[in-house]
């Protein structure tokens, strides 16, 4: 391995010791911006200058300490920031560097530039994804988003490739299956959380995946987790399956749940953006109790800063930071419980000298965490804190135990933690709490840096290595895959401390360990062992430095990239599903409209036409009935006297009774005619009602089937009204119908003497005095004597004949006379018209009911169709908007996804032989 980081130990390459650095006045050249890039042999590399200007103009890093003038953001990353004394020293150190140093600096600048590009790309994508999520949230309020659900469990094989499982999707609402051609389905589906699948292609074992999914606190099936990661809805209700639950929820409820998910996601994206914008990298050092975490931290610092003890002592989080971030002052800021630390707000912490740290770390009642500002005694090439590239904070966490496991796990999962260094005792291996922590952290962090400490105490080192690596394989396959870089077997207590800067705690500076390293003395074998331990540790340091600095893209940007890919994938699936739903809804309502619109048009037209038609039908029916009744009754009345109506003539002795019977028969006959007219009207009404009913059925459908009409109820009242109403008095003269009599005389020739005489007598008697002339004429013919003899019998005969004739004619005369009298009386009371009007009015009334019903029905039908059309149009409009929106979302998410995919965090420039690369 290259040793380029280690050009000197505890000293600057120029041979100055560290005290010189802190006391030397600032160089004029470094009073403004320290010329990090103008280092080397003194002759500034043009290439380096160009790179430096690129970095300066790049939107990348400034200092990460807001408002700190020594750590001002105007200093580009890669330049010595903060304490001017240190800056000057470092500047000098750089300016007097070797060509290798110059080359290394250039490489660092290239690396920084590359890093900034990736960071800016991801930052832009985060902004864009937030916009997309906010857009989805807005659309979700007007067009509640549909949620994809899966077939029942069992229909899936857990080993099924995720890309094919797309076909298993079905949706909460029905949709056409052929809509999938609308877009390209997601290319690949990812797991939940921010674990970096991108980098796990080679190392992820199926066992580990299964284990991770089984252990992760998921409330939904692994199948859904495969499809949907971030936006999945965590539903749990009794024994109901997730998909069933989603199905059972209303569309609006699903939309509300989704809204909550989107909010959480936006928050997470904002914190990710904050994190990638934060120039500092935080390294959490955790592990079991007494594993040697504090010793390991001290070894990294080459100073005894944190208290080490054989019994558990660290009970609070100690964040070790470069003193330059505290105006170059070494001290401890013990942060009050529940206070949010701000260096500029002294009410949030108490200040202690470094030597008091021992007391502070065991007091977890007053404080939960402390900030330890230390001056790094090492050169920027060696140091982790003071590395010249990025601010690093080492966080020494309390040992894991049942009380703090949770705290530590939560801490480890916070976005601010970039790297987890897990210290495990070589003698004790991984305890249960250690395993639980690693599983939890592995879900959030792609890799975990493992430090197997106390290796000096192990005799069978090979066996120990094998056993530890086997366990690492089970706990974090990715870490195992890169175990040569990420798993280190060291003895932290064997690392000698460098001389402590003035004012610092007891640094020892003896170079001897405080633990079990032992004094090698003059024993060359012992010396060799010590050297070996130091080399092992130096290798660890280089790996850790690489991991944190060179591969910080991985540690810092990878979670953002992974999360972005996951959320974009989710959004793409959601958008695809909803585009399909919107398309199918659009098609459905378009089809509905194709039916509704002609229906509405026809109904509106029918409403107008049928209204007229009904009116006409009623008018025609009533007119016909009126005319019919009038004619029929007139006819009946007129011809009432044409016959004796079946009433037998009982002889002239009962002539008056005969007249009464005749009158009754006539009235009955007229009354029967009225009844016949009513019957006719009833029939016509039934026809009319049926006609209206047919119209109703035709235009309104079955609701008209039930229209019942009972025609027998019509004209129930007014029975025998006529017979009771009339009182026609019969007179003697009614028995003689002179007009008829005369008519008959003329018609029937030679009806005998009696008739002639009667006629002559009757006629002349009634006719006036002219008969006298005839008598005289007759007398002249017959002779006066004869005449005198004949006249009396003749007269008697004539009278008898006439009487007989009249009496015989009663059956013919009386009906006419009665009929005439009846007709006159009926005419007087306007009988025919009033009956005709009554019957037709009754019919009108009966027909009016179904007609009105039909009219109302038609109006309601038109209104209902109109409302349906309006609603359908509204849904179509909304579907159209949603279709456009989701179609765009499918494209935008796919585009963003390809942009994020292009951010290749593996293609680090140093991987191609840069100066910082380690062979
Ligand atoms: N032999 C040996 N002892 C070590 C090594 N590292 C640490 N120790 C000792 O182990 C003991 C515990 O070390 P600490 O660094 O306090 O352990 P810790 O994990 O920080 O302890 P807590 O924070 O209290 O959980 C101390 O006595 C150390 O000297 C090592 O590599 N080899």
Helix/strand/pairing class, anyone? alpha/beta
Major sheet attributes: 9 strands, mixed
Average pLDDT over all residues:
70
Helical percentage: 40-55%
Number of strands: 11
The number of domains: 4
Distance between the termini: 5 Å
Describe the structure.
This protein has 919 residues and is α/β, with parallel strands linked by helices. It has 4 domains: 32-120, no CATH class; 127-270 and 565-589 and 878-902, no CATH class; 284-534, P-loop containing nucleotide triphosphate hydrolases (Rossmann fold, 3-Layer(aba) Sandwich); 599-871, no CATH class. It is 55% helix and 6% strand. It contains 24 helices and 11 strands. The chain has a 9-stranded mixed beta sheet, sandwiched between helices. α12 (432-444) links the parallel β9 (417-425) and β10. α4 (99-142) runs antiparallel to α8, α4 (99-142) packs parallel to α17 (552-638) and α21 (753-767) crosses α23 (784-828). The longest helix has 87 residues, at 552-638. The chain is rod-shaped. It starts with 17 loop residues before the first helix and ends in a 17-residue tail after the last helix. The model is unreliable at 1-45, 47-96, 150-222, 506-522, 748-768 and 911-919 (pLDDT under 50). The structure holds guanosine-5'-triphosphate. Guanosine-5'-triphosphate (GTP) binds at residues 289-295, 308-310, 312-314, 399, 453-454, 456-457, 491-493, 514-516.
């Amino acid at each position: 391995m290259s040793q380029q980081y280690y050009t000197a130990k505890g000293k600057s390459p120029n041979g100055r010791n560290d005290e010189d650095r802190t006391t030397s006045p600032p160089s004029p050249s470094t009073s403004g911006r320290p010329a990090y890039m103008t280092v080397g042999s003194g002759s500034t590399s043009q290439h380096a200058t160009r790179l430096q200007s690129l970095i300066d103009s790049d939107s990348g890093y400034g200092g990460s300490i807001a408002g700190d003038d020594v750590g001002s953001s105007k200093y580009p990353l890669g330049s010595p920031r903060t304490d001017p004394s240190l800056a000057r020293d470092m500047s000098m150190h750089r300016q007097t560097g070797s060509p290798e140093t110059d080359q290394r600096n250039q490489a660092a600048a290239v690396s920084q530039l590359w890093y900034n590009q990736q960071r800016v790309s991801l930052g832009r994508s985060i902004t864009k994804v937030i916009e997309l999520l906010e857009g989805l949230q807005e659309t979700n309020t007007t067009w509640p988003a549909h949620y994809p659900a899966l077939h029942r469990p069992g229909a899936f094989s857990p080993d099924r490739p995720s890309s094919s499982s797309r076909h298993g999707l079905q949706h909460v609402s029905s949709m056409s299956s052929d809509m999938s051609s609308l877009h390209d389905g997601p290319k690949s589906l990812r797991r939940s959380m921010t674990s970096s699948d991108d980098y796990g292609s080679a190392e992820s074992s199926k066992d580990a995946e299964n284990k991770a999914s089984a252990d992760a606190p998921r409330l939904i099936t692994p199948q859904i987790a495969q499809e949907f990661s971030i936006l999945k809805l965590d539903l749990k209700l009794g024994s109901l399956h997730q998909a069933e639950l989603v199905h059972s929820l209303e569309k609006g409820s699903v939309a509300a749940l989704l809204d909550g998910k989107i909010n959480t996601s936006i928050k997470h994206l904002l914190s990710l953006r904050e994190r990638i914008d934060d120039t500092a990298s935080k390294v959490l050092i955790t592990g079991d109790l007494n594993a040697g975490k504090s010793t390991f931290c001290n070894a990294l610092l080459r100073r005894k800063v944190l208290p080490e003890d054989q019994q558990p002592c660290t009970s609070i989080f100690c964040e070790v930071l470069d003193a330059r971030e505290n105006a170059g002052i070494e001290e401890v800021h013990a942060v009050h419980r529940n206070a949010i630390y701000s260096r500029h707000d002294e009410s949030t912490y108490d200040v202690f000298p470094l030597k008091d740290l021992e007391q502070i770390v065991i007091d977890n009642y007053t404080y939960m965490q402390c900030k330890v500002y230390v001056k790094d005694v090492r050169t920027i090439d060696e140091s982790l804190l003071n590395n010249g590239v990025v601010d690093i904070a080492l966080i020494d966490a309390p040992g894991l135990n049942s009380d703090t496991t949770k705290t530590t796990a939560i801490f480890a999962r916070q976005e601010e933690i970039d790297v987890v260094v897990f210290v495990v005792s070589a003698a004790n291996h991984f305890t249960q709490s250690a395993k639980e922590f690693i599983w939890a952290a592995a879900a959030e962090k792609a890799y975990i840096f493992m430090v197997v400490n106390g290796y000096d105490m192990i005799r069978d080192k090979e066996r120990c290595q094998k056993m530890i690596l086997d366990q690492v394989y089970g706990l974090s396959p990715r870490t195992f895959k890169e175990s040569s870089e990420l798993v280190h077997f060291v003895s932290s207590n064997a690392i000698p401390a460098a001389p402590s800067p003035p004012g610092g705690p007891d640094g020892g500076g003896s170079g001897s360990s405080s633990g079990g390293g032992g004094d090698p003395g003059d024993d060359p074998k012992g010396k060799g062992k010590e050297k070996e331990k130091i080399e092992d540790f130096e290798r660890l340091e280089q790996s850790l430095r690489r991991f944190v600095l060179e591969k910080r893209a991985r540690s810092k940007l990878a979670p953002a990239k992974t999360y972005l890919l996951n959320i974009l994938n989710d959004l793409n699936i959601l958008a695809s599903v909803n585009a399909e739903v919107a398309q199918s809804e659009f098609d459905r309502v378009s089809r509905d409209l194709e039916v509704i619109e002609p229906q509405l048009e026809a109904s509106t037209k029918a409403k107008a036409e049928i209204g007229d038609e009904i009116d006409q039908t009623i008018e025609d029916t009533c007119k016909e009935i009126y005319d019919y009744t009038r004619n029929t009754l007139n006819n009946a009345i007129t011809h009432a006297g044409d016959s004796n109506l079946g009433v037998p003539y009982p002889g002239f002795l009962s002539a008056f009774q005969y007249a009464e019977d005749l009158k009754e028969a006539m009235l009955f006959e007229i009354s029967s005619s009225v009844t016949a007219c009513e019957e006719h009207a009833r029939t016509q009404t039934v026809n009319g009602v049926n006609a209206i009913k047919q119209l109703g059925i035709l235009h309104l459908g079955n609701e008209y089937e039930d229209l019942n009409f009972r025609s027998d109820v019509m004209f129930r009242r007014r029975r025998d009204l006529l017979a009771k109403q009339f009182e026609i008095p019969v007179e003697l003269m009614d028995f003689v119908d002179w007009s008829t009599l005369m008519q008959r005389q003329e018609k029937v020739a030679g009806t005998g003497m009696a008739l002639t005489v009667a006629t002559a007598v009757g006629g002349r008697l009634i006719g006036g005095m002219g008969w006298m002339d005839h008598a005289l004429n007759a007398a002249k013919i017959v002779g006066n004597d004869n005449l005198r003899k004949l006249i009396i019998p003749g007269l008697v005969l004539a009278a008898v004949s006439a009487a007989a004739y009249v009496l015989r004619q009663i059956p013919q005369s009386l009906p006419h006379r009665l009929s005439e009298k009846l007709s006159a009386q009926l005419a007087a009371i306007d009988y025919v018209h009033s009956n005709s009007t009554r019957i037709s009015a009754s019919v009108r009334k009966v027909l009016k009911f179904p007609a009105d019903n039909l009219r109302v029905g038609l109006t309601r039908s038109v209104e209902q169709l109109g409302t349906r059309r309006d609603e359908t149009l509204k849904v179509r409009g909304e579907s159209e908007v949603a279709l456009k929106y989701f179609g765009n979302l499918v494209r935008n998410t796919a585009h963003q996804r390809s942009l994020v995919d292009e951010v290749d965090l593996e293609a680090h420039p140093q991987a191609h032989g840069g100066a910082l690369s380690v062979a």
